[in-house]
Amino acid sequence: MPAPTGPAISGSTAAEIADSIRALIERGALSPGDALPPVRSLAQQLGVNRNTATAAYRRLAESGAVRSQGRAGTHVASAAVPAREGYTEAGALRDVAAGNPSPALIPDLRAALAAAAGRPVLYGEAAFDPGFEDWARAWMAPDVPVPADELSLSLAGGAVDALERLLAQALMRDDLVALEDPCFLASIHTVRLGGYRALPVPMDEEGMTPDGLRAALEQGARAVVCTPRAQNPTGASRTAARAAQLREVLADHPYVLVIEDDYYSLLSRRPFHPIIGPEHRRWALVRSVSKFAGPDLCLAVLATDPRTAQRLSLRLGAGTTWVSHLLQRIGHAVLRDPAARELIEEAGALYARRNAEFARLLGAQGIEVPPGDGLSLWVPLRAPAQQVAHQLMRRGWLARTGDEFRLDAGTGQGGEAAPPSRHLRLTVHELEHAEAERLAADLAAAIAESG
């Protein structure tokens, strides 16, 4: 289908032009893969400055509606199923892409399931199960800027549900959200499906960079989503010095919603360094149990400022939006069981040890990997990741490239196509030593063959 010309696209501001194109996509007048007019042509058609047309395309790219293909132009984004965490169709390949915890290190829930039985909970009762609420308060209170007796707690069906609820109660469509770049896949999808626009904030080994966060706030970000430790996919963990720098940046923006997604919490080998200062007015700390108690236990605790808690309560009332008391009782039974807590500690130590061992194997192959935290390693390459991953497939391995975790939506500065990623995310804790040695050697060979 040819790209629309003349009056088909309308508007005199970037927002109006972007809304016009989005409406054409929603009505089916533009289909996935259709080309949009070049920036210069669109500006001439609409009688606007070229920068206005460029800004309109950038807004659409930030929301995932379009993608730049460099000299091939800007096209409506494909409706293909986006990349997701978890198992993939590996077939005969050895999967080092999944990012899953080890099943052997997830506590056995049978005793907790029996302990969860009790009287039925009826409509209109409190959202929190009393026993779990006390435990959750003790878990969250040391890491937030309010006394324990003033702490406002909420629940969600996992960290992704928490993020969706937090953004929905604070934002409107087209609002800007600052996200880490590269970023956790579910955060990217949640922001785009919510109709918000993602602003990439660069990462280094200490997390979000202060300059990157400052730039996002100056562009008008109304929410910031960040990971204090074991960032997925990079494994970066915030230092005390970096946390102080980020708090200083945020001090000038006290009403921007800051969401700390401490998803790895009890498994992490690194301390928690908050960026939410005592004067900040809108904030949330999110901790889920999925990484250590199992992904099927969809339960997250949110500590927030009072206003955010009040708005969240409107979506956590009796009915389908509450979080099951059975799930809360199961989670509470696991978290107060000494044997389960010992297994969780063992899991965190094993993930860190296996990652460190594999990093040493890569170092012996001339591939230097910065130490990190989390379930996976973020491996820098001297060749495009897609090419290296293809060579690994020929050797029997399924790896995940860094391209999937990027926020640029294929659009760089000025609208050109962004360069391909040069990172792989590898999950290696399930590999025996001989397998890890073979993967390290195969990766070195794949990089060499990829130029």
Automatic annotation (TrEMBL):
<dbReference type="InterPro" id="IPR036390">
    <property type="entry name" value="WH_DNA-bd_sf"/>
</dbReference>
<dbReference type="GO" id="GO:0008483">
    <property type="term" value="F:transaminase activity"/>
</dbReference>
<dbReference type="InterPro" id="IPR051446">
    <property type="entry name" value="HTH_trans_reg/aminotransferase"/>
</dbReference>
<dbReference type="InterPro" id="IPR004839">
    <property type="entry name" value="Aminotransferase_I/II_large"/>
</dbReference>
<dbReference type="InterPro" id="IPR000524">
    <property type="entry name" value="Tscrpt_reg_HTH_GntR"/>
</dbReference>
<dbReference type="InterPro" id="IPR015421">
    <property type="entry name" value="PyrdxlP-dep_Trfase_major"/>
</dbReference>
<keyword id="KW-0804">Transcription</keyword>
<dbReference type="Pfam" id="PF00392">
    <property type="entry name" value="GntR"/>
</dbReference>
<protein>
    <submittedName>
        <fullName>Aminotransferase class I/II-fold pyridoxal phosphate-dependent enzyme</fullName>
    </submittedName>
</protein>
<keyword id="KW-0805">Transcription regulation</keyword>
<dbReference type="InterPro" id="IPR015422">
    <property type="entry name" value="PyrdxlP-dep_Trfase_small"/>
</dbReference>
<comment type="similarity">
    <text>In the C-terminal section; belongs to the class-I pyridoxal-phosphate-dependent aminotransferase family.</text>
</comment>
<keyword id="KW-0032">Aminotransferase</keyword>
<feature type="domain" description="HTH gntR-type">
    <location>
        <begin position="11"/>
        <end position="79"/>
    </location>
</feature>
<keyword id="KW-0238">DNA-binding</keyword>
<dbReference type="InterPro" id="IPR036388">
    <property type="entry name" value="WH-like_DNA-bd_sf"/>
</dbReference>
<keyword id="KW-0663">Pyridoxal phosphate</keyword>
<dbReference type="Pfam" id="PF00155">
    <property type="entry name" value="Aminotran_1_2"/>
</dbReference>
<keyword id="KW-0808">Transferase</keyword>
<dbReference type="InterPro" id="IPR015424">
    <property type="entry name" value="PyrdxlP-dep_Trfase"/>
</dbReference>
